[in-house]
Amino acid sequence: MRTKLIARGTAVAAAAAMVALSAAPASAATVSQASATALSLELANAGATDSGTYAVTNDGSTESSEGTNKPVINLLAGQEAIHAGTLAQDAVAKRNATSAACSGLAGDGATLVAAGSGNCLSGGDNIKLDAASLDFSELEVIQSDLFQGMDAEVQKALKPFQTEITGALDQLLAPVVDGLDGSGLYVDLGAVQSHCTASDDTARGDSTIANSSVYVVLPGGKRETIVDLPVDPSVNQKVVTDLSGVVDVVIKGLRTQLANGLGGALQPIDPVVVELQKQVLNTLLTSIEGQLAPLEENVLDITLNAQDTSPGAITVTALDAKVLPAAEAVVGGSVAHLTIGTSSCGPNSPAPKTVVNNPPPKAANPPATVPTVVTAGMESYDDGSAGRTALVALLLLAAAGAGTATYLRMLRRG
Amino acid sequence: MADTASDSPPRLAAAASGLWTALVVLAVAMVLAGLMWPSGSAAVEVPPGAPKRLELPGLNTKARVVPIRLDGEVLDPPRNPREIGWWVGSAKPGSAQGQTVVTGHTVHTGGGSLNKLDHIEEGQEVDIVTKDGTFQHQVDSVEVLSRKELAEQAQRIFGQDHGDGRLVVITCTDWNGSSYDSNIVVFAHRFNALPS
Asked: Are A252 and A291 found together in one domain?
């Protein structure tokens, strides 16, 4: 009898333990959540730093948070790209399965606004972000094949003087290339920020970018704007940043130097100078243009208002910029990857209303809708132009038919 | 001997009760140990997330994945045939339950994201990339089903009450000169998760 009692008691205790264990996850379920990261910098050859992430969750009764919602810009360690400004990252998660977040960066003097009101920041000065330097140290002005491709007679005439010529050209053009040191790529930023909201089944977000542009400062301090960033970017808007203007300046400088200095520098080989001027210029400039070609491509991969969505959840990043691999040879410096204003909301779900330990029998549930047809085949693909052409042809055909019918009717009446 | 025989039923009952108690205690102990014992794979855990890219290394195929919804009972891949659609009614990659369903176009004149799927073989790798990492899968089976067979077996192929987080990749096949007669369905189980 005693044994039976012990066995039953132990069984009851075990069952209670099982129930407690199975009920525990349900009571800790997340009803709503959101997070925000003001700034993240991946530095070339120097690791990464960021403002940290402020994340909040609500379990249906209380909101709990991790990280700080008062980040300070001068705590971003180990970076020289950005020195001043106001960071914002804030998020709220409510019991009613709604959440909101906002994050961003603005200049000094900006006013902070709590999450849930849309933007986080208003006002403030613009700030300059030192994105990258233009590195011309690998530029080979005089290459070994400088004389290849010239007329055979010219090559023959130049042969005794090749060393002198390459030396003289190098001396002539080196100051132009050296003078390019200090050219830099900068981002001028007004308030750059994103915000999002989520309920139990939908999530939405947006970004704003005020008074911002990407520009290059050339030797001598000349500022050349590469692109003005749109204030209200569309979702996942790409921005092209080709530096063909910089290439033009370099080529123009070399051309001027060659034209002005070639005669004097190559005085000892005067008989061939005229022909040399004609041929060496093109060979040399073509080679340099080839080396600078990456600058004429897109050098920064910039995405504005980048949105990553899944059912009931969204992550919005106001500005995402990174140096493209093709441009790494000529674009060096501080920033390899920069993100400003990353706000995430959801997924949220209302607190469970059913009794966890007494779920309805499975058979009582109607089967969920599943696909019964998958239309994953196409004969061909075009961008719609064929369809438009066919439509126009049909309309013309119809018009011609109607015209003919009217014409015939008029003939019959007449 | 007679005493022994008369004592047998109580002894058997006591033994059964003792065994029952031992089993219950063992069960509770195993549950608690399972909760507290450090898991070796915890360090490389990748949370379930919306898919961003599908990669079929054996077919040299990579494609961006975008979410798609059902239109009635029709699952239509993205309009851009180079993209793959993830049915948002299916499990997120990395989920422990349900199955992740992705579909992409086969284009008869070429250029579809899943044009090469009919060359896939059992044992080959299929990867799904999310923002947090990559889920690696291995192909278990490849089935070619007529439209009727697909409709009849829809719950097995697309239902979310089973699957243990397996991956289902589907496209069209059997071009008859004007349309496709069948679907090719690839089932793959997850064997690894690599954090990004």
From this structure: yes
